[in-house]
Amino acid sequence: MLLATACGAPSTDLDEAENTSSSSTTPAADDVNGDGYTDLPISGRTGDPETGQPYVGVLLGGPDGLSPDRSVTLTREDLGLADDGELLTVLDTGDLDGDGYTDLLVDAGSGYVVWGGPDGPSGEAQPLPWLEMDDPRGMYAVSLVVGDFDGDGNTDVTVLDHLQGSPMDEFETTFHRGPFERDGSAAESREVTLPSDAADAELDVIDADGDAALDLLLVRNRDESPAPHLVLRSGPDGPAQEVVGDTGLSHAYANGDFDGDAHPDLLIGVSGIPNNEPGHEDELHPGYVDAYAGGDGFLDAEPNRLTLDSEGVPGEAEDGDGFGNGLLVGDVDGDGYDDAVAMTGPFHSHETATLLFGGPEGLTGERAAALTVPERGDLGSYHHHALADYDGDGHPDLLLSTVRPSMPEGVTGYVLFPGGPGGFDQEPVEFTTEGL
Questions:
Q1: Which residues lie below 8 Å from residue 335, measured CB to CB, with a gap of 6+?
Q2: Is 295 helix (H, G, I), strand (E, B) or coil?
Q3: pLDDT tens digit string along 331-347?
């Protein structure tokens, strides 16, 4: 079985092309060993990308940020799994059993959990009865999302399964309520009703209303064309209790409170690069980022549009510039207003990362700063990966990586721009997973 997630990190469906959409929310910090520092889940192969041993694990955060010198890696043998040639992939993370340690949900040919603890992820992988597949003609998990979808304070998992084959016109969605037992069983599992176009879609997490229950985003697959995505409100009974409506057309999306009014806002990015395949009518235009204020109900509000020609934003707008082709959100300067990183580059590449600051007026070009994305020819190009506080100073750091969703690398390259009160350091730290 191949499992894939559309939340947090990039999609991990090994048979699918790269998903250029951003995560819709800033995920809870991954602290697998409970030391107070955010950790980075990793997947790969030891040594040769083709013949090396598959592994999953973490790079542990610390006062100096991330370092491959602080890593925990687990092979199939370490996890008590047969060496049957299947890859290992971290699908998502969350504290499933409520013990204070982040756990790893892993694809190892079927679904497993690797429990976190004081030494990081350890022990044999526990099969998840609700992520198993024995019949190769049966359903497989296209995406899963992790979060508190009923507002009770426990971590839940929602899974969207498709029938293998083409066309994929059959699907099912299940909600698994936490906390989970150490045998992997959920407190409750039940089906969730989704609209019919979920047969060609993925799930992500969004905060539509600021309450304790995280909401769902049904991410529609429109190839390289911008697409609307459906917001589904959660409640005490779990996810998808109400259809809220469609977002604007987007290549990328993100979610945060940019004006500090305690109402979650919505960002969408449209790169301006058309889909050249027959049947698509996209037009070449400058990329843009639209900010929808949550206080007005972000699906009905008039957006505040930013381009590379907006006052204060470094650069110059031109057709197909790719501004907004990737988005990340976090309060980088620590002033209580969420900020955003907008990626820029032609044909979905990332050449520049622009930091846009939030404030009482929301997201603007004031104090905006652009970072040049380093070149990494030996391992591929860098892409946006996460905005998280890895060094514990209270300021999220910008992490770029060479991770490719469709082809896990034997070695992954990373570049980390530390965050601070004035934004990001101009001099990044580069490292790889070579030798893990």
A1: 359
A2: helix
A3: 999 999 999 999 999 87
